[in-house]
Amino acid sequence: MSQEKNVGAAHAFWLAGRQVTGEDGFDVTSPWDGRLVARVSVPTDAQVEEAVAAAYAVRDEFAATPAHVRAAALDHVSKRLAERTEEIALLISAENGKPIKWARGEVGRAVSVFRFAAEEARRFNGGEAQRLDTDAGGQGRLALTRRFPKGVVLGIAPFNFPLNLCAHKVAPAIAAGAPIILKPAPATPLSGLILGDLLAETELPAGSWSILPVANDRMPALVQDERLPVISFTGSEKVGYAIMDSVPRKHCTLELGGNGAAVVLGDFASDADLDWAATRIATFSNYQGGQSCISVQRVIVDASVHDRLLPRIVAAVEAQVTGDPADDRTDVGPLVSEDAAKRVETWVDEAVAAGASLLAGGKRDGASYAPTVLTDVPADTTLAREEVFGPVLTVTKVDGEAEAFAAVNSSKYGLQAGVFTHDLQVAFRAHRALEVGGVIIGDVPSYRADQMPYGGAKQSGVGREGVRFAMEDYTYERVLVLTGLAL
User: Fold this and answer.
1) Fewer beta carbons under 10 A from the terminal one: N or C of the chain?
2) Could you report the per-residue pLDDT of 38-60, keeping only the tens digit for each?
3) Is 166 a catalytic residue?
């Protein structure tokens, strides 16, 4: 799927395993220079109904599909993604504005997600036996527990990782034997649609997957549809909780926002330590244009190392290469839209007006926003309270571990936190004290391995992604009791 092939007639989507076109749709344009990347067709109401009906009808057949069939399909997608890495990376960069080097990394992660899913498909749901003759009433009885799909999954993916976060919806569903209807983000549908190219090369049953670029304003009907009992959503806190509130009897996995904190404690004090921390903080405050829910937004620094670390952070941020995302040298590309950059600009300007000190950046050029560092940000500003989702970080000085951990926990969000320390006891105290879904020791909060459990506490969502953990979310335990056995 080259960029040139996408431009012209409206690009098709995938309905119950076949490629179709619907209504004349919408343009996908580059956030960097505004050029047309593709025109995408959108499904009619009748086509959406066909996809839902097909997924519902095939749910029992798909749940009974042998593990080796599902695993082979997932292995195939993993292999084909690897073979087409450069092509798909260029597509991600074109529609999303992501620097090409980060786009290649995203394809590599999706390769791993499908590989992990193939491995889990082969070993998941093998069954666990439990003897029941521990009491007299259970003599001769054995319980066998297996997991079965809850039903069709509605997967709703965001724009910031347009391939890998689609992979995190699709791969676990297929591995668990749950049909899935995937809705990619309107700004970045092409990376999700390309998964259909690869899934169509497999032997999965018709109806077990569809990829529908449905407009956001048409989603309430899909969310409410009783044939879709599982919803997996990645996106904003506002939208995620609105979905959950609208369907209180459905199973919802919500991976929402964060304002990731990186804590640098006093024992992380050598020049090499501080150089490492500054480089990692600068890189992962600005990668993806800061459009990652675990990017570094808040840097919380012990007073004993603050004055040595701050200039290193500023220098490392200023060294980030901004520009054309197609250039291999570029570290920071544009945000997904000019409106997104204007919002970041507004929040930074509000903080400065309220008394914050601007040490780097603070300038917008179209959809691009310069990597930015602020200190002394008042606690009641939008920037201090909310997820900026842009290339902006704030630095706060604290006195000791307890104050640092309290600062992390002061946020309504709790996705991940990073703690730069060499002290193993501190690491375990951080794991106990920090109200987040993941604590990363010796690095920024932005580290994610795609096989580990991933999700948040507080307003950062409910449930967990990470292939096996998503499979558990999509399934439930069913017990079989065997009677009259000679145990």
Assistant:
1) C
2) 999 999 999 999 999 999 999 99
3) no
Measured in Å, how far apart are the chain's first and last C-alpha atoms? 59
Cα–Cα distance for residue pair 350/353, rounded to 1 Å: 5
Residue 265 dihedral angles phi and psi, to the nearest 5°: -95, 170
If residue 180 lies in a helix (H) or strand (E), which one and from where to where? Answer: strand 180-183
For residue 388, report the phi and psi dihedrals to the nearest 5 degrees: -75, -35
Sign of the CA dihedral with 448 first, then 454, 455, and 456 last: negative
Predicted confidence (pLDDT) per residue in 114-133, tens digit: 999 999 999 997 778 999 99
Judge residue 382's burial from the number of C-beta atoms within 10 Å of its C-beta, 0-12 exposed, 13-18 middle, 19 or more buried: middle
The SS3 assignment for 206 reads coil
Cα gap 487→484, rounded to integer Å: 9
Evaluate whether 265 touches 421 at the Cβ level (below 8 Å): yes
CA distance 391 to 408: 19
Angle at alpha carbon of residue 355, lines to 349 and 360, rounded to 5°: 55
d(CA 305, CA 283): 20
Question: Residue 301 carries which side chain, given as an amino acid letter?
Answer: V
Which of 293, 387, 401, 465 is labelled catalytic? 293
d(CA 187, CA 179): 25
Q: Where does residue 127 fall: left (phi above 0), alpha (psi -120 to 50 degrees), or beta otherwise? A: left
What is the arithmetic mean of pLDDT over 376-404?
A: 97
Residues 6+ apart with CB under 8 A from 118: 70, 71, 72, 74, 75, 78, 175
Q: Which helix (H) or strand (E) holds 109?
A: helix 100-123
CA quadruple 99, 104, 110, 112: dihedral sign: negative
